[in-house]
Amino acid sequence: ILQHLNMSKHTDSTAEVLLEKRGCAGVITLNRPKALNAFNLSMIRQIYPQLKTWEKDPETFLIIIKGTGGKAFCAGGDIRVITDAGKVGDRLAQDFFREEYTLNNAIGTCQKPYVALIDGITMGGGVGLSVHGHFRVATEKTVFAMPETAIGLFPDVGGGYFLPRLPGKIGYYLALTGFRLKGRDSQKAGIATHFVESEKLPALEKDLIALKSPSKENVADVLNSYHMKCKTDQEKQFVLDEHMDKINSLFSANSMEEIIQNLKQDGSPFALKQLETLNKMSPTSLKMTLRQLREGASMNLQDVLIMEYRLSQACMNGHDFYEGVRAVLIDKDQVPKWKPATLEEVTDEFVDNCFKSLGNSDLKL
């Protein structure tokens, strides 16, 4: 009966997530277009068991994940619900992060080819549902960002794993500033593996679904052929190309204070713009994030997610996450009052504590 219920869900256009077996593929469709396909705990609880089932099913050869509505793949997790829960000490504040990171890990370890069609806004938690899979297909509508430092959080969902592994110091730059990569730039930066015109996605999906018992190589061949045929913005220079030398030198410092110092000393228009951006971010978030990436650079995905779960709970027990969500998402005054208000006031001791084991409450993967 459960299997039947699962399979009949896709006929319900109001379901928040659609899970369908189509041809050789399991297809996950995030279906909250009005919320830019932001996901909640109930959606995670539907996707995770289905992903595990498809992974074991001999008749399912690949997994496709996409969003509806044409604006977003997924704008992230439903943050407001989490902060509401955190304020009153509701367990959801633990459960959400624990189950979200468990899903990120399942995607990162999935034995079947996993294809994310990141057409439109792909931020925060939406990156976690895509970047750890084998294939990420960007389009001219893709907008990638990890904007968490602006809301008193940190680039979680395995950001500590994939960001420091991007070329040079680009991941550190994206993590600290929340810079948005658009269209082909997301592929040039290494976030996406392929680039295809948005209007070609239905045909691409159809071709993938029609494959007969495909191997990972067969899936790659289809994606490669669409990628090679796509001429949009092919000649365009990577947006960060001219700044890469500066990013690599200025963002390679061991501490946030040094990065700020580097930017001030550099004094170029690019450096001053970054200073201005970093000055708006939560000082606590910036210090947590820099350390998260520096440590994550030499850890596996599981250990990174365990570390990030500790950080998520530190944020739930702190001040800045609630204040950031208030300023950016609720009151929208865009003027968060961070506590502490300066980098100097965020002590190493405080940051160390955020990374400490939670003992029995640690994430288990």
Automatic annotation (TrEMBL):
Where the protein is mainly located, per its record?
A: mitochondrion
What GO molecular function annotation could you give as one example from this UniProt entry?
3-hydroxyisobutyryl-CoA hydrolase activity
InterPro entries noted in UniProt:
ClpP/crotonase-like_dom_sf, ECH_dom, HIBYL-CoA-H
Major enzyme class: hydrolase
Q: Kindly tell me the pathway this chain contributes to.
A: Amino-acid degradation; L-valine degradation
Which BP terms does GO give this entry?
L-valine catabolic process
Catalysed reactions listed for this entry: 3-hydroxy-2-methylpropanoyl-CoA + H2O = 3-hydroxy-2-methylpropanoate + CoA + H(+)
Q: Where in the cell is it found?
A: Mitochondrion
Residue ranges of every copy of the Enoyl-CoA hydratase/isomerase domain listed in the record: 26-355
User: Is Transcription regulation one of the keywords UniProt gives this record?
Assistant: no
Domain of life where this protein originates: Eukaryota
Keywords for this entry?
A: Branched-chain amino acid catabolism, Hydrolase, Mitochondrion
Q: Which GO terms describe its cellular component?
A: mitochondrion
Alphabetical list of CDD domains matching this protein: crotonase-like
State which Enzyme Commission number(s) the record gives: 3.1.2.4
What is known about what this protein does? Hydrolyzes 3-hydroxyisobutyryl-CoA (HIBYL-CoA), a saline catabolite. Has high activity toward isobutyryl-CoA. Could be an isobutyryl-CoA dehydrogenase that functions in valine catabolism. Also hydrolyzes 3-hydroxypropanoyl-CoA.
Q: Which family does it belong to?
A: Belongs to the enoyl-CoA hydratase/isomerase family.
PANTHER family attached to this UniProt entry: 3-HYDROXYISOBUTYRYL-COA HYDROLASE, MITOCHONDRIAL (PTHR43176:SF3), 3-HYDROXYISOBUTYRYL-COA HYDROLASE-RELATED (PTHR43176)
Identification of the protein by name: 3-hydroxyisobutyryl-CoA hydrolase
